[in-house]
Amino acid sequence: MIKVEIDEESGFCFGVVTAIKKAEEELTSGETLYCLGDIVHNSKEVERLKEMGLITINHEEFRRLRNAKVLLRAHGEPPETYTIAKENNIEIIDATCPVVLRLQKRIKQEYKQKDDIQKKQIVIYGKNGHAEVLGLVGQTDGKAIVVEKLDEVKKLDFNRDIRLYSQTTKSLEGFQEIVAYIKEHISPEATFEFYDTICRQVANRMPNIRKFAAAHDLIFFVSGKKSSNGKVLFGECLKVNPNSYLIDSREEIDNKLLNGISSIGICGATSTPKWLMEEISRYIKKQIAISDEEIH
Ligand code: SF4
Q1: CA 13 to ligand 1: nearest atom
Q2: Chain segment 72-87, per-residue pLDDT in tens
Q3: For the chain: N or C, fewer Cβ within 10 A?
Q4: Contact yes or no for 46/23 (Cβ under 8 A)
Q5: 236 noted as active-site residue
Q6: Contact criterion met (CB below 8 Å) for 124 and 146
Q7: How far is CA 218 from CA 86, 104, 225, 269, in A?
Q8: C-alpha angle 265/50/11, rounded to 5°?
Q9: Mutational test site, ligand 1, from 77, 202, 204, max ligand atoms within 8 Å of CB
Q10: Where does the pLDDT of residue 227 fall: very low under 50, low under 70, confident under 90, or very high at 90 and above?
Q11: Ligand 1: residue whose CA is nearest its atom 5
């Protein structure tokens, strides 16, 4: 009998839960509601909310919009978005996660200390172009420097002060590597301060997900391919269990993988809905039952 288990600790973080709840509440009122960008990096959940009436728009469409209601997702937005909303009579339903909001404020404060801004580099360890990172860079009038990986840290000026922050969903390991590199290279005349601003909703899941992935023969990690924390958490699964697969939906499951194994684990990112993992579990159990019938 093949065991199929869903990881209890996988699924939406509180930031995403709150954003979706806000969207659902607004949608039940019957008014038209737009969302600036995908509400969550999961196409299945986006589809579910679309069926409820949520209209997803991009920044270009947002600029052209007038007299409407727009939800801002958990990733947050740069100040420019709020300015446009004001000018275009757009009512904002702000679902920016409080953790992201706090980080935006810290970076803004850092930038506002204008006296030493000329000699100070504000650095964000994050993914270029990611919505949260755009929101953070926006707090500095676009001046913050984004570094995605250790290699890019070399472009910093080590003769000038450095203040390092992190996108909330980056890996702690990667952040520590960057900190170590800067410490080693910073000139004695310059100062270096770093702030670990990684969200514990992601970091705390790592030890658990490693344990979970190691306990099964086969892992299906359910996540949208664009999800940052999905990539990080899936990477942790792969480290301990090379028989791990990143899937967006049950259609991506290769049934051949189910042969000859005794336990399957299903887990996911902070943007993965529980209902989707349950749907995948039901599908796998059905496939196992069909193949058992064929054998007997
Ligand atoms: S991962 Fe953390 S910061 Fe990001 S939305 Fe979830 S709770 Fe907020």
Answers
A1: 6
A2: 999 999 999 999 999 9
A3: C
A4: no
A5: no
A6: yes
A7: 51, 39, 19, 17
A8: 25
A9: 202
A10: confident
A11: 15
Kindly name the residue from 132, 148, 184, 294 that is annotated as catalytic. 132
Contact 137, 237 (CB under 8 A): no
Whether 97 and 74 have beta carbons less than 8 Å apart is answered as: yes
Neighbour-count burial for 54-83, b at 16+ CB within 10 Å, e otherwise: bebbeeeebeebeebebbbbbbbbbeebee
Ligand 1 centre to CA of 129 (Å) is 18
Closest to 127 (Cα-Cα) out of 145, 101, 147, 102: 147
CA distance 236 to 245: 12
**167, 168, 228, best to mutate for ligand 1 pocket (most atoms within 8 Å of CB):** 168
Would you put residue 56 in left (φ > 0), alpha (ψ -120 to 50) or beta? beta
Summarised one tens digit per residue, pLDDT across range 33-44 is: 999 999 998 999
Is 168's C-beta closer than 6 angstroms to any atom of ligand 1? yes
| Nearest atom within ligand 1 for CA of residue 97 | 8
